[in-house]
Amino acid sequence: MADREASPVPLEVRARLAELELELSEGDITQKGYEKKRSKLIRAFVPHAGGMEGPMSHRTPLGPPSAARFHRRRTSGARDERYRSDVHTEAVQAVLARHVERKVAVPMPSKRRSLVVQTSMDAYTPPGLSPLCSDSSSGSEGEEEEEEEEGGPGDDMHGMEHWLTRPAQLGPAHLGSTSSSSSSTQSGGSGNAGRLADSLAHAHISHPHLSHTHLSHPHLSHPHLSHAHLSQSLHQQSHLSQSHHGIGHLSLKRKGALSVAENGGSLRRSCEFGSDMLWPPPLESDEKHSRPPGVTRYSSHSSHSHTERHHMANMGTIARNTQKYGNAERMETGDGVPVSSRVSAKIQQLVNTLKQPRRPPLREFFVDDFDELLEVQQPDPKMPRPEGAEMMPVRGEALGVVTNWPPSLEAALQRWGTISPKAPCLTSLDTAGKPLYVLTYGKLWSRSIKLAYNILHKLGSKQEPMVRPGDRVALVFPNNDPVAFMVAFYGCLLAEVVPVPIEVPLTRKDAGSQQIGFLLGSCGVTVALTSDACHKGLPKSATGEIPQFKGWPKLLWFVTESKHLSRPPRDWFPHIKDANNDTAYIEYKTCKDGSVLGVTVMRIALLTHCQSLTQSCSYTEAETIVNVLDFKKDVGLWHGILTSVMNMMHVISVPYSLMKVNPLSWIQKVCQFKAKVACVKSRDMHWALVAHKDQKDINLSSLRMLLVADGSNPWSISSCDAFLNVFQSKGLRAEVICPCASSPEALTVAIRRPGEDPSLPPGRGVLSMQGLSHGVVRVDTEERLSVLTVQDVGTVTPGALVCVVKPEGVPLLCRTDEIGELCVCSVASGTSYYGLTGMTKNTFEVYPVSGSGGLVSEYAFVRTGLLGFVGPGGLVFISGKMDGLIMVSGRRHNADDIVATALAVEPMKFVYRGRIAVFSVTVLRDERIVVVAEQRPDSTEEDSFQWMSRVLQAIDSIHGVGVFCLALVPANTLPKTPLGGIHLSETKQLYLEGGLHPCNVLMCPHTCVTNMPKPRQKQPEIGPASVMVGNLVSGKRIAQASGRDLGQTDDNDQFLFLSEVLQWRAQTTPDHILYTLLSSRGAVSNSLTCLQLHKRAERVAALLMERGGLQEGDHVALVYPPGIDLIAAFYGSLYAGCVPITVRPPHPQNIATTLPTVKMIVEVSRSACVMTTAVICKLLRSKEATATVDIRNWPPVLDTDDLPKKKPPLLFKPTNPDGLAYLDFSVSTTGMLAGVQMSHNSVGAFCRSVKLQCELYPSREVAICLDPYCGLGFVLWCLCSVYSGHQSILIPPWSWSPTRRCGCWPSAS
């Protein structure tokens, strides 16, 4: 070393050496490149340089490092001396000796360190890690081949053992002292150790927080690991340290930063955080092969006391300014002491890049890439916003208490039926407008009692009646027979049975009929009440029976005419109770998507609602009311059937069939009967205006109230105004017109009171369409086209509390000038959607919240589905309905408004009877408007497109929205509701399925689809969608597996039904054994051949037909233990045309627990009878079973131990492969019952797939020890042998215990 310093070195070489030193300190050159280039420069000036064997041959032998061995004088001036210090080595030894015993298990992430900061263990770098300094940057390419270690394996192992024992020999010193931390930045140790620390500090750039953990990675033990490989490994491991950054900060106060593993193994994550080890430590048996610990593992001992400060600095919001001088930059060491260092621009740029994690959050991996491609509609900054104060709930007047009000509606009927039996109650009209039948209150009372008695006592048997109090019963009556409906409705009320009024199914494929069937099934309806004329008009099958409508449960049709009923005994009288919380009736409601829900109305709500209407409408006894509305639901039911009976009113019911023939018929009846009240819709007023020219001598002065049921439709005001202008000269007064707002859930919400001060004009407002589309109220002038004139629907009904809440999200109260959904808190409202708890909670259990966060009321509100606001004086205004709401680009549009705009374009000349449907479809994640209209038969194609063009222009200019599709269909081709309207959901379904078959179509996607996909942009990184596309392009299948095709391989595959397969096998191979049953001891207890099974199934079928009296499609519960009887009963049910359901029998020793499950399956499956053995039949009738389940509720139980000898006259031959074969019921461990309908087609496919997969054929023998009541066990036990022809050896599951395993199972296999 002295010789090297005494040799004269030229200034050019010294300058080049200084540049090399600078490159090395900045990390622009590796250690190997530095050594090689330096040796080349000084080789001519150093005498011993020529004797070197390689660029690294000056290294000392492997062993404990020392300051004297590694010390080297720098010739680059005082600037480089601050990076090297002998004092640092001695200080670090003392520090480690003092704190070597401290145990901390968590390697914590530290503050982002300086790139040239040396660790406190630089002088103790393990010799085996020196090759880590290799790099592929300039000056070191191709040098790995030239470098070889001089020390042999023995020396290397000796040095490694000395390295592992070195820290224990160090004396106590200044761990965490500021001086040692400062010196650690000013001294790099001596020789290789210091330079290795520089290189490792450079490697830390991959992620700064990994400086304490990642160098213990197993890959680092490889002697020739490249620096690029190291950086890649560090980058792959970076997220492990990131995820624990916050946790590590909390544990430092108790345990410090790191601990040294005594066996030289890798560090572990702290157990208190529930984390696993980063890498497992080596076993003690492999101690001599363990790698040396990482350099930075010990470095944290000198700075662990400052780590907490580092985390606080990272979490701070104030950035520290760094001072610069010359080419150096003032940076901080681990303990915050500023030092001067040199950092290259490349490395500093990389550090700045790594300050924020590049890995996206986890939620971004689950975002559909399609959303990112679509243009996001930015809200209009100029759109109107609500500015008024928060609204206050509006309360209606108090519900007056009248002394003579009856305690229930049945009591009112009893009063009028006994006091005024001859008073007219209801008059029905024929199609000519003449009175058809006049129902008096006495007749209504007597016929209702008679019907109530027959419902309770004549349906079913005395022991097992079909209808009990509380059961639901369907009322199926046409719209021209209100008398029969009224008798049936009050008969159900007197019998305490819940009526469910529905429409008459005209065909098996009526629009919405399937959803009605779903409602009946969910309500558990088994009996349908109907009239004689309606029963004769129902569709019939070839045998004269009423077929089962699509989606409907099996119903017993019961005619309610008196001639078909039995007279009740004189001592029988219905029990009339006061109104309570029992369900009075269920009213069906059709939703926007076509689903049908049942709104339950309690008896107390029914009575309160009648009282509220009586007070609001000022009804008195013996008044005459003309009802044009549907008497089965909504306003027509509430006024024409219920409230009229409470007040002994006389109702003139005008059927819809008469209205189609004579639109003026209701006005004629008002004049004829001097009616005081008329219940109509705005359409009835409109068509009356069209036909009034032909009518003379009209006098409407007797009317004191013209109730407009659809007053909530904002466009009804035009019909009301036009009707008033025409008929005001006929005696009609302005204050007579009383629009109302109602909904099936909240019943009547608001109604305009009759007889108010005629000098006060009705409330109305001219509102801006632009403001309404943004949900705010803005008054405009009528001169503009884009305005909507709305009329008030009166004030809130008595006893109710109404508020307006936001339609979406939390029910926050709206402002006074904001459009929202009306909510009602009243006794007179619906209670729930029957059987739908979740939807009930969202609709009937709403608690509005004020702006301060407090509840408006402690009582629940009911959503009405009406959009509007409360104006001055408590007047309620309705601007639309939730079901008609269409959201396009964040703006609200009402379907009724668009219909009105389309009708305003020459409706009488083109649109057939004003039949227009407006709905929305989803295109590119937004709703698009579709208009479908029926055109007149005499319209030409030129007229059609001219009308469509004008409609598009009108909708665009008035509503400010484009129409996606405008389709014209021939007249009378759109699906109809029972009253002749357009069935909206069915029309939309036909549009989506391509079944509308329009004659003219105008598509305008360019005017409404404004969120087109963005131009393709280069994605910053590979996302999950790119990975999927890459796999698809490379031909990889993603989460997909498919079996081979099910082709026809055998003769039995030609049969579509399993019963036909059994008959075929009984003829072709009668003596082939299909089933062998083993006993608990392994002996054969029974067997069945193909012919024996066929004959036994025939006898079971004869039993079902003769004794059971079952018909095609009836369900049969098979309660058998695992055995031959179960199989025979199953195929006997198929021979009889019944649907079998296998049920596990109750356990004799645990009847109380297992019998309810049997009863539940029998009830849910609607089994017509139960087949079982004599033993189980006796068990079902035992005292313990009777105490658990009422035996009277069981369907007929048939004992199959004594089968009839004769065959059935004819075996049932199924014709529909998609028909029901059997029901598969299973009970989960949590007690949930699930049933699966298996068709004949699916049964055949299932058996065929099992046959092909298991290679089953007649010579096979298969042992089966499975539960034979559901799933695969049932298929293998009962079906596969008949289909495939193999012999099944049946082993009952519960007879096979572990003690019998050796005797039973091997013999079977």
What features would you describe in this structure?
The chain is α/β, with parallel strands linked by helices. The model is unreliable at 1-6, 48-85, 99-341 and 1297-1309 (pLDDT under 50). The radius of gyration is 45 Å and the shape is flat. The chain has a 9-stranded mixed sheet with strand order 6-5-14-13-15-16-17-18-21, sandwiched between helices. A 5-stranded antiparallel sheet has the order 4-22-23-25-26. Helix content is 34%, strand content 17%.
Number of helical regions = 44
Level of helix content? 25-40%
Radius of gyration: 45 Å
Number of strand elements: 42
Mean pLDDT: 75
Key descriptive features of the protein:
single chain; 1309 residues; 9-stranded mixed β-sheet; 44 helices; 17% strand; flat
Short description:
The chain has 1309 residues and is of the alpha/beta class.
Topology overview:
Layout: H1 2-6, H2 11-26, H3 31-42, H4 67-70, H5 78-81, H6 86-99, H7 153-169, H8 178-186, H9 191-203, H10 227-236, H11 238-243, H12 245-255, H13 295-299, H14 307-315, E1 324-325, E2 328-332, E3 338-341, H15 345-353, H16 369-373, E4 394-395, H17 409-419, E5 424-429, E6 435-440, H18 441-457, E7 472-476, H19 482-494, E8 498-502, H20 513-523, E9 527-530, H21 532-537, E10 556-559, E11 583-590, E12 596-602, H22 603-617, E13 624-627, H23 634-646, E14 650-653, H24 656-661, H25 665-673, E15 677-680, H26 682-691, E16 705-708, H27 716-727, E17 737-743, E18 747-751, E19 764-768, H28 769-773, E20 787-791, E21 795-796, E22 801-805, E23 820-825, E24 832-833, H29 837-844, E25 862-870, E26 876-881, E27 885-888, E28 891-894, H30 895-903, H31 907-910, E29 911-923, E30 926-935, H32 941-959, E31 963-969, H33 984-993, E32 1000-1003, H34 1005-1008, H35 1024-1033, H36 1058-1068, E33 1073-1078, E34 1084-1089, H37 1090-1106, E35 1115-1119, H38 1124-1135, E36 1139-1143, H39 1151-1164, E37 1167-1172, H40 1174-1180, H41 1183-1188, E38 1197-1199, E39 1220-1227, ...
Parallel strand pairs: 5-14, 7-8, 7-9, 9-10, 13-14, 13-15, 15-16, 16-17, 30-31, 33-42, 35-36, 35-37, 37-38, 41-42
Antiparallel strand pairs: 1-2, 2-3, 4-22, 5-6, 11-12, 12-24, 17-18, 18-21, 19-20, 22-23, 23-25, 25-26, 27-28, 29-30, 31-32, 33-34, 39-40
